[in-house]
Amino acid sequence: MDRKPVRTPKNEQQQVTLQDYIRVFYRGRWIISISFVVILLSTAFYTFTAPKVYRASGKIIVESKGTMERAIFNLNYLGNQSTLITNQVEILRSRFLAQRLVQKLEASAFRDSLKIFQPADDGTFMDYQDQIEWISKHLEVSPKKDTDVIEISFDAGSPYEAAKICNLLMETYREIVREFNQSDYRQLRQFLEKQLQRKSEELKESEEVLKEYQEREKLVSLDESTSELITRLAESQAQLEQALVEMDAYQEQKKSLERQLEERKRNLAANLTVAATPLLEELQKEYARLAAEKVTYETLLSQDRIDPGEYRLQLESLTNRMEALRKRLQEEAQNIASSDMVQDPLLVAQNLTIKILELETNIKGLQAKIAALQDVVNSYERQLAYLPKQALELARLKRQVEVDQRTYMLMTEKLEETKITEAGQNENIRILDRPEMPELPIKPKKKLNLLLGAILGLGLGIGLTFLREYFDDSIKHPDELERMGFSILATIPEISPKEVVEKARRKTEELDETFEAAQIIPRLITHFDPKSPISEAYRTFRTNLYFKNHRKEKHVILVTSSAPKEGKSTTVVNLAITLAQLGSKTVIVDTDLRRPVIHSIFNLKKEVGVTNYLVAKAGLDDIIKPSFIDNLFIITSGPLPPNPSELLGSDEMKQFIAEVKEQFDVVLFDSPPVIAVTDSALLSTMVDGVVLVIKAHQTHREAVRRAKMLLENVEANIFGCLLNSVKIEKSYGSYFYYYYYHYYQYYGHDLKRRKLFKS
Predict the structure, then answer these.
(1) Which of 376, 407, 430 is the last residue of a domain?
(2) How many CB atoms lie within 10 A of CB 367?
(3) Rounded to an integer, what is the distance from CA 650 to the centroid of its chain?
(4) Do both 626 and 732 map to the same domain?
């Protein structure tokens, strides 16, 4: 016999096409539909039963002109406006503001209408901490980019509650910021008031002492040179007093800032010196040296001891260099404040750190200035020491009075400036838009929720479909078999036993009810329902098989499967019926010597069959049995032997095939599954070709590959495969079965109409 084994491609390509995706979606359409409906209904139920949430919003603007950068002694604000806005946002989100707001809500006239003071479903009330957390949870603060505007929103269960709480929150915030801005200046004002009161008493006392001395010693004035020396000494002494007051003010302000910073990060103030970089220390030393040099030049100019034209340029240069150093100190302080060493969770601490570092710089500069002025004062005092005793005492008293007057005037001026600055802090927070009662709720968002539910439902359904497809390794479509190198002989739709039996009984009234119709009739569908699409599919199978073996006048074909329960016996029977209907003398040989079923389909006895012939206990004519179908004969299995493989592979089997082939046009062998036993592989070497039956949605790809390999190993001629039990409702693109069905229904109806017309 000619062998044309089909070889498996070396690189079996499993390219996924759009058609494959459509088939997956079609097979999983119920999963997708159920998932979509369940998720959408669940989302709709949640959306329409969830409590409504209303949002009231207002806007404030933060003005920088009234904040701490307008410090009393030319203290520049080093933070930029974005840091200022960030600080305000942190204040709005702070627990301190929430606590103050809860206290104000407790005392408000609309307290009983607020949810936080109402009992829950179980009758319990929120405690103080829960109320604070509730406020923080429902508050939203959104700074507007590239502006000084902050939007404040509050969510509540009713429009009235949202608007009332948001309005009171903005007023509370405004009050807190006013307190923060005024706190430093209040402490500075109180310090200056105490110093001014003490200086006023000292001035009165020094004036009284001078007056008493002049009256007692009968001295009214000093000579011109002594008066000029006292004036210069008084000026230097006043500058010294001014520097001391400024340094005390800076130190007082520094203590205040350190106390604020301590609340945010403990022990940071004590480590600021360690946090300073070497560059910052060098810059501070250089700044102090320039400050002392400047004081020296100013003193020499005031004494007319140097050329004003030449040294005024030196003073301008010193002033410019000090200004440049100040800017570098500001940058370095900003870097230190932004570093991890002094980083605070709230950005307010960063601003405080910058101010403290700048105050350190100013204090060091003042210390150098005080030391230089002290040297100048000491030099003047040494000159006064050469005056006579009476004149020296009078000069000392006049100097004290003049110094006290100048210091008193300076402190009075600075106190007024502080009061003005403190009053100006009230206006740096302004309300642009006050919250109004919202008309519509922001939650639940019905359209968005339903859209998301639909998308989630579809996504979940598609995901489950692909997950099922991933774990389902069965053959579902002929394309999969073609990729594996098989020729598709036919695709047989799934047989509905109930429908076939009903049709058969309608056509054959004499059908025996006791005959096992429910099991037998569906296997003989080409006989009982020859016009069905399934019967037409078997006829297509017959035609394709003839073309595969067109060189042979006699056909010897083996039908097998990879595993049990795949429909090979049904396939053999219906193929034989279609061949017999065509007029070919056909015989079915049941060579499944382990679990034979052909005899039961035709209601025959199996006792005399193939095995009787192989063991020489019966002749060929003795084992051939006619069936109730014309041109179709049956050879049953006979008694089941203990050694089926040896019998099927014997020379007697070859002789049997030769004799049967002489008497019949077509010989069909029904054999066991090829993977389970070697019977089919042995027989495949003795026949013209092999047909492999594969059951859709059941046979695994690996089983098909294994069966193909076993047949190829013995060089069997594989005609192709038949995909059996295809579920039309699960197979996208299988509409042609319905076309067959309707076409033949119409064809039959047309024949009946013609007969009626002729009669």
Answers:
(1) 430
(2) 15
(3) 69
(4) yes
User: What angle is formed at CA 226 by the lines to CA 224 and CA 230, rounded to 5 degrees?
Assistant: 115
Do 256 and 373 have their domain in common?
A: yes
| Overall pTM surpassing 0.70 (yes/no) | no
Angle formed by the axes of helices 29-49 and 18-27, nearest 10°: 60
3-state secondary structure of 443: strand
Work out the number of other CB atoms within 10 angstroms of the CB of residue 93: 14
Do 366 and 500 sit in the same domain of this protein?
no
Domain CATH number, residue 671 = 3.40.50.300
Residue 685 CB contacts under 8 Å (≥ 6 apart), including other chains: 714, 715, 716
Q: Is 78 inside any structural domain?
A: no
User: 316 and 365: one domain?
Assistant: yes
Q: Are residues 706 and 650 in the same domain?
A: yes
Element of type H or E holding 54: strand 54-62
Calculate the CA 394 to chain-centre distance: 86
- For 530, other C-beta atoms within 10 Å of its C-beta total 16
Instruction: Specify whether 455 is located in the same domain as 483.
Output: no
Which residue in 36, 20, 70 sits closest to 423, CA to CA? 70
pLDDT at residue 297 in the model = 67
- Count the Cβ atoms, other than its own, within 10 Å of residue 381: 16
DSSP-derived secondary structure letter, 633: E
Residue 752 pLDDT: 43
pLDDT, tens digit, 9 for 90 and up, residues 152-161: 999 998 999 9
Sign of the Cα pseudo-torsion (515, 521, 524, 527, in order): positive
Residue 108 falls inside a structural domain: no
Q: What are 692's strand-pairing partners?
A: 560, 721
Neighbour order of strands in the sheet with 488-493: 488-493, 718-726, 689-695, 555-561, 666-670, 586-590, 632-635, 625-626
Same domain assignment for residues 448 and 500: no
Residue 299, pLDDT score: 67
Specify which residues 150 forms β-bridges with.
60, 143
Parts of the chain with a pLDDT under 50: 1-12, 66-79, 267-276, 339-346, 510, 514-515, 734-759
